[in-house]
From TrEMBL:
Name recorded for this polypeptide: Lytic transglycosylase domain-containing protein
InterPro entries tied to this protein: Lysozyme-like_dom_sf, Transglycosylase_SLT_dom_1
The Transglycosylase SLT domain, residue ranges: 67-149
Transmembrane segments: none
Pfam families: SLT
Species of the source: Pseudothermotoga hypogea
Length: 294
């Protein structure tokens, strides 16, 4: 019994979210997963689809609308879950420190990202009394521009944003985001198969669901309201039984999920190791471990 408890704790600490691509929405590439239990083997594919969501003009404020459209094009190419190697997040690529200063809890949230970038740009325009300098400061940082003036890269960036703004001023551009479909099959006492889906609702929340067919048919639907870019609550149902929990992740490196419901306790986790993910957890009174390859 003690060994089982230790293994459960290690699964939680060293792994993250079994078979849940919400951890890597920023990188919509096909992946496949092997998951092992004592009496069951599961193979699944993660098939991404980058889709257009809605016209960006619906979400832009009247002031700075044209500049913001150009900035978003340059920063993220209108992709909601864009994530840079340096950690800049979302449509407007806010760094964590900048997002914190602006009070933006979730830079992947379309509304918060656009609002935060608009307020930031207005403050920079007021400070430097110049659109070019304000955009350069958005890229290089206001302290650097105030002390040394804009650098060559900052001026190039500002020109690129203004050129994109002119190009898209009278053109309709759409937000883009990824949805994942996960067909799978399981081999064990019974052969079973099914399909799950995972999608983002403007970064405000995630919606997941699925259908499984074996000796019986089961289904689930979960909603993940995003509190921050790292923390989500979970509400939903599995086979008409209410389920709740939380989801913590650090995109794209790790995540952990806890689900609690009637006769249900599911703890699962996933961690990136080099070019693949290790997954593990405890669900339906069974330990499981697996690998996701992208």
């Amino acid at each position: 019994m003690r060994k089982i408890l230790c293994l459960s704790l290690l699964s939680v600490v060293f792994s993250v979210l079994v078979s849940n691509p919400l951890v890597f929405l920023n990188d919509p590439r096909t992946a496949f997963c092997f998951d092992f239990q004592v009496d069951r083997f599961r193979f699944s594919l993660f098939l991404p689809l980058v889709r257009s969501i809605a016209p960006i003009d619906w979400f832009l404020p009247k002031e700075n609308a044209v500049i913001l459209k150009g900035l978003i094009k340059v920063e993220s190419d209108f992709f909601v879950h864009a994530l840079s190697e340096k950690g800049a997040m979302g449509l407007t690529q806010l760094m964590p420190s900048t997002a914190k200063e602006l009070g933006v809890l979730n830079p992947f949230n379309v509304f918060q990202s656009v609002d935060g970038a608009n307020r930031y740009l207005k403050d920079l325009q007021k400070r430097f009394n110049s659109v070019n300098l304000a955009i350069a400061a958005y890229y290089e940082g206001p302290t650097r521009v105030a002390r040394q003036g804009p650098g060559v890269e900052g001026l190039k960036y500002a020109q690129k944003v203004l050129n994109s703004a002119r190009d898209f001023e009278n053109r309709t551009a759409f937000f883009k985001d990824a949805v994942y479909f996960e067909p799978y099959f399981e081999l064990g006492k019974h052969f079973s198969g099914g399909v799950n889906f995972y999608l983002s609702l403007l970064g405000v929340a995630y919606l997941t669901g699925g259908l499984n067919v074996s000796d019986r048919v089961s289904q689930h639907v979960f909603v993940y309201p995003n509190i921050t870019d790292s923390v989500s609550l979970i509400f939903g149902e599995r086979d008409l039984n209410l389920v709740g929990g939380f989801f913590f992740r650090k995109m794209p490196d790790f995540g952990i999920q806890l689900l609690v419901g009637k006769n249900e306790l599911d703890v699962s986790a996933l961690a990136r190791v080099w070019r693949f993910y290790i997954t593990a957890g405890f669900s339906q009174q069974r330990l499981h471990v697996g690998f996701i390859f992208k």
